[in-house]
Every structure is written in structure tokens, then in C-alpha cells.
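When time allows, look over one protein, given below as sequence and C-alpha cells. The question is which stretches look regular and which look disordered:
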Amino acid sequence: MIWLFFTCFLVSFLGGVLLIRGSRHHARRYGAEMPQRFHLGDVPRLGGLALLAGAAWGWGRMALAPWLGDVSNLGPVNPMTWYWLPVLMPAVLGGVCEDLTQRVGVRWRLLLTGGSGLLAVTLLDVTVPRLGLPGLDTVLHMAPWLGALLALLAITGLPHAFNIIDGYNGLAGTVALIVCAALIHVALQVGDRQLAAVLMVTVGATAGFMVWNYPRGMLFAGDGGAYFWGLVIALASVRLVQQHAQVSPWFPMLLLIYPVWETVFSIYRKAARGGSPGVADALHFHQLIYRRIVREVFHDDDSRRMLMRNNRTSPYLWGFTCLTVAPAVLFWRNTPVLIGFCALFVATYVAAYLMIVRFKAQRWTRPRG
């Protein structure tokens, strides 16, 4: 698996070089008036292509192992490894089109991620077999189509959740790395080396992209990259729960509670104000941290000053993510404990959000430098 990591890292890294050198002109389409813009200058938003290239190399090499040799000692490769790439294509390429043109509407992108979800349900036969709650598990057993519908909902929605948190250098990419590492750990615990290898490919591709994304901010993931992370992690999470009864379905929920709850809370917040959930704004949790907790950086160059302040924002959210990933990894079998931590996160998030909005952030939350 280490060989897979390094080769996917290299492909993604080199893909980033080509994108940085050849795609700056397209970044001018992303107007300075965008509410999500927290950088100066024209930065390519096509990192999703570098991620896709790295993953295509890794998954293709896994699928060709019977003919080219099993260099990662994975054993017989599941033929369905071939299908991961086609499943991702509608959503990721749709996101890349939006990154290039800024003209693909929210509804179309939602339909494209839904198309990827339908392909996953049909080609990979993914379903949510249980929820860890006796009454609901009985219903799922009696109506299996409900499990497929839940899988479709998860695979359709998580890419957009990652797109929402993809606001600062290294934020969404590092969250994806942390979550993938936790999924790899549990997959190895239950002996699923195939799924662990699929996720290791994702980790390698993401690490290659991150060289250019953090801290220098030379390449952004864009919608295509966010959709890539969301789809792969959603697919892996559902497959892990589906194939291994000892894994609680609330394990991936706690792993992903930050992007999931950020999305749910954003929909509620916009609806309460009479707005459309599909309209972007600058009131997400990470944006409030940028404005009200991260201190101004004094530098003669405006671009450099904004970049340094941008980079100081992401570590707050990395720590926030680790607070959910740590108990998820420790209690991945224990449904009641996982549910309790999910509830604790929701309460903590809402309290922290209200505290920041009301300008009551404590001094200890601010860096000294």
C-alpha cells in the first residue's frame, strides 16, 4: 500500500504542476466580488483534476494487478474496483466545468452528484443495511429499498458538504486526509485491505495536491476536488458498514459530523432568514473564525497578508475535526457512545457559533503572535 501512496502522490503532484503552469487564465472568471473569496490574485481552481489523475492511476493499477503483478500484496482484487472511477465522473467533471465556467447552477450540480449516487447504487450495489437502532433496523430489513435510498442520499449530499467547508487553504483537504486515515484504520482492523487500499490511493492523491494548496495557496481544489473527496469518502463509509457488521453505522457519521452538520445548519440558517439554501454567503463557521478570531497579519504586501491570515484559519477547524475523529476511532463498534458524541458535537458547534456571532469569543481562542 505504501507503493500505491507514493505513486499516486507523484501523479497528483505532477498534475498540480501542469495545472498551475497552464491554467491561470481560467481563474480570472472567478470574480473578486464572490463572498467565498479570501485571496488576492488569480489562482487555478482545477485541483480536482490532479486528484482525479492520481486516483485513476492508483485504482487502475489495483484493477490490473492480476496481469501486472500484486505489488501491494492485496490479494485477489475485487472487480468492482474498476467501477469507482466511472461512478465519480458525472459529479467530479460537472464540478470541474463549474470551476472553469462559473455557469453550472446548483441544481445541475446536485443532479450530477445524484447521478453519481445512482451509479454507485446500481454498479457497486451500495446500501445502508442498518442504523444501529432496533426499530429502524427492522424497517430497513423489511424494506431494503430504503437502505439504497439512504445510500443515495449520503453519496449525493456529502460532496456538497465538502464543498461548503472548502473555504481556506488546506481546510477540506486535511479534513479529507484525517477522515480517510480513520477509515483506513478501521478497515484494516476488520481485515478489509481492498477498501483500505482504495482509501490509501485517495490519501496519496490528496497529499500530492496539498503540496500546492497549503500553505502557499497556488492551487485550489474547486468544486471538482470537493466532490471527489465527498464521493470517495461517502462510498467508502457505506461500503465499510455494509460489508462488516461489527462496524457501527454511527462511526462514519461521527467522523463526518463536522461537514454534515455545517451543511444542515447552513440550510436552516439561510431558510430562517428567508434565503435560498443554494445561494452562497460568508457566514459559515470557518468564515466567522477567519473574521473574528484569527488576528490581522501586518505585512506590506496585501496578497501576502491575506494568505498568511488564510493559513492561520484552517488549523482551528483541523482541531475541531480531530475532536470527533478521536472518539470515532476509539469507539467504532459502540453505537450508543458514538450517538452521544454526535449530540455533543452538535451542541458544541451551535454554542460556539452563537458565541462567535455575539462577539463573545474568549481570549484563549486567539493566537498570541
